[in-house]
Amino acid sequence: MTAQSPKFRVGLVQMRSGRVPARNLDSAVALIREAKSAGADYVLTPEMTNILERSRESLFAAIVPEEKDPSVAAFRTLARELGFYLHVGSLAIEVLPEKAVNRSFLIDPRGEIVARYDKIHMFDVDLAGGESYRESHSYRAGEVAVAADLPWGRIGLTICYDLRFPALYRALAEAGASFIAIPSAFTQQTGEAHWHILTRARAIENGCFIFAAAQGGRHEHGRETFGHSIVVDPWGRVIAEGGSEPGVIMADIDPSLVATVRARIPSLQHGRRFELVEPIAEPAHLHLVRAP
Questions:
Q1: Phi and psi dihedrals of 142, rounded to 5?
Q2: Is-catalytic flag, 208?
Q3: CA-based torsion, 22, 56, 193, 253: positive or negative
Q4: What is the DSSP string of 121-148?
Q5: Which of 2, 171, 209, 234 is buried most deeply by CB count within 10 Å?
């Protein structure tokens, strides 16, 4: 889109998803309606809108393939009814009997799914204090980066842990994305340390808006997420932020700011490809001498 693209209003839905998809759907729909009533043209929900469940057995007992998922159908109907862009941050979707995908859906005002994105980077980590996560045990990683056109510009689709891999964001920016969505469920521990730094860094590096709807609070299965859904502008300024409770965060977006910032610091034009040089081995005749 051009620098004259009109302004629009974004609504971020912050949730505290539990173990029962039907209840999560009801909560999401109520918050989405609230955002639309506040004038949102585009609404983003968090990662794992439909379920947050650590038990593999319970997860697969609760989820279904996309074509049978009542949440997908309900969100399509809602977008069509209210006539706006609904970006479902992600749903756990069964693709094999014991494998799921963490899938994002962008739905247009006609209720059509115009983009799908499967989370590429799997959260397989051991944190201090005994927290351990193995997303790859239950989920199949995606392999394709996705961007889609909105009336106000192009948006790149990412999910949560992707935030730590800047090459993905640079690729989306180079493909014309002015906005990048990061629906998330950051842990309390990692969120306190890195959430603001990373979301602002991705905005600054790429001269783009960041829309990051998050899960927040202590969930049914005991996990605690950081919340703080956030909108960051292309200069790295936080223009809207939530707290730890479920709710709606609103922000007015001026797409022309993207062109202004990218003209001021045109780093997207200055990137260069380079070769990685292997470390030079220490010459055999050199020896490190340590004082006694």
A1: -75, 170
A2: no
A3: negative
A4: S--EEE-TTS-EEEGGGTBPPP---EEE
A5: 209
The model carries a pTM of 0.92
159 Cα distance to chain centroid:
3
Angle at 162 between CA 156 and CA 163, to 5 degrees: 85
What amino acid is encoded at 200 in this protein?
A: R
49, 249 in Cβ contact below 8 A? no
Query: Looking at the domain covering 8-266, what would its CATH class be?
Result: alpha beta
With a CB cutoff of 8 Å and minimum separation 6, the contacts of 26 are none
* pLDDT of amino acid 167: 97
The pLDDT confidence band at residue 29, using thresholds 50, 70 and 90, is: very high
How many whole angstroms separate alpha carbon 55 and alpha carbon 125? 16
pLDDT of residue 285: 58
Q: What is the pLDDT of residue 9?
A: 98
Per-domain boundaries in the chain: 8-266
Per-residue tokens: 148: 């889609």
Q: Cα–Cα distance between 118 and 67 in angstroms, integer?
A: 16
Cβ atoms of 114 and 106 within 8 Å: the answer is yes
* 119 included as an active-site residue: yes
Active-site position among 36, 53, 94, 119: 119
Record the tokens describing residue 242, joined without a space.
Answer: 């939530």
Nearest CA-CA partner of 91 in 101, 78, 99, 80: 101
User: CB 72: neighbour CB atoms within 10 A?
Assistant: 21
- Catalytic pick among 47, 53, 94, 208: 47
Helix boundaries (H) for 43-103: 56-62, 70-82
Please report the pLDDT score of residue 86 as a whole number.
99
Of the candidates 36, 53, 94, 160, the residue annotated as catalytic is 160
